[in-house]
């Protein structure tokens, strides 16, 4: 047998390198919502996640506490909300130097981009649909309208947020 060159070995295994070896299920972004609550949000409408310096967000006067301000990314201008405050939960985002932001895109026309600031992004998680349970009574009534289910992870029950419910909260916020 002749020894093949490194380039020939790489070429022989090139297709294997690009095969996705993903866990089954839908992708969810995991993040710290409050000091004692981790949450999930489907990546279906997530465009990107950003770490943004506070001075890159322009505050808007006379807005509700949940509105941090406006910013731009990739030639798009959008509003950034403190997700915890929007859901009437305690927030740890008071005057930080940086914000961790999940940028979402609506599916309706015209396309609207929304930034949701969270305490800390923790990565992507894949879950099969049957792992998401509908028992929402584990959470207070103020967060229940924004949930599409819950997931049992280790010792904790983790809420799975519903982007449509959050969008409705933003619509209500806008009409006040």
Would you mind describing this structure in some detail?
The protein contains three helices and ten strands, in the order αβββββαβββββα. With 176 residues, it is of the alpha+beta class. The protein has a single domain, classed as Beta Barrel (OB fold (Dihydrolipoamide Acetyltransferase, E2P)). The chain has a five-stranded mixed beta sheet with strand order 8-1-2-10-9. A hairpin with a 7-residue loop joins strand 6 and strand 7. It starts with 5 loop residues before the first helix and ends with a helix.
List keywords for this structure.
176 residues, alpha+beta, OB fold (Dihydrolipoamide Acetyltransferase, E2P), 5-stranded mixed sheet, 3 helices, 10 strands, 17% helix, globular
Fourth-tier CATH superfamily name: CheA-289, Domain 4
The description of the largest β-sheet is: 5 strands, mixed
Tell me the count of domains. Answer: 1
Number of strand elements: 10
Short description:
By secondary structure, the chain is an alpha+beta fold.
Give the topology.
Elements: H1 6-18, E1 26-34, E2 37-42, E3 46-53, E4 67-73, E5 76-82, H2 83-86, E6 98-105, E7 113-118, E8 120-127, E9 147-153, E10 156-161, H3 163-175
Parallel strand pairs: 2-10, 5-7
Antiparallel strand pairs: 1-2, 1-8, 3-6, 4-5, 6-7, 9-10
């Amino acid at each position: 047998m002749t020894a093949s060159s490194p380039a020939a070995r790489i070429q022989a295994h090139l297709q294997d390198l690009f095969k996705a070896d993903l866990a089954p299920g839908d992708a969810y972004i995991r993040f710290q919502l409050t000091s004692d609550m981790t949450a999930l949000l489907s990546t279906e409408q997530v465009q990107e996640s950003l770490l943004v310096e506070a001075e890159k967000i322009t505050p808007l006067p006379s807005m509700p506490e949940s509105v941090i301000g406006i910013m731009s990314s990739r030639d798009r201008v959008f509003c950034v909300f403190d997700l915890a405050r929007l859901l009437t939960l305690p927030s740890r985002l008071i005057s930080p130097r940086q914000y961790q932001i999940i940028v979402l895109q609506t599916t309706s026309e015209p396309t609207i981009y929304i930034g949701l600031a969270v305490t800390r992004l923790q990565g992507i998680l894949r879950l099969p649909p049957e792992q998401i349970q509908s028992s929402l009574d584990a959470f207070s009534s103020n967060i229940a309208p924004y949930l599409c289910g819950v997931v049992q992870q280790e010792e904790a029950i983790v809420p799975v947020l519903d982007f449509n419910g959050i969008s409705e909260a933003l619509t209500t916020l806008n009409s006040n």
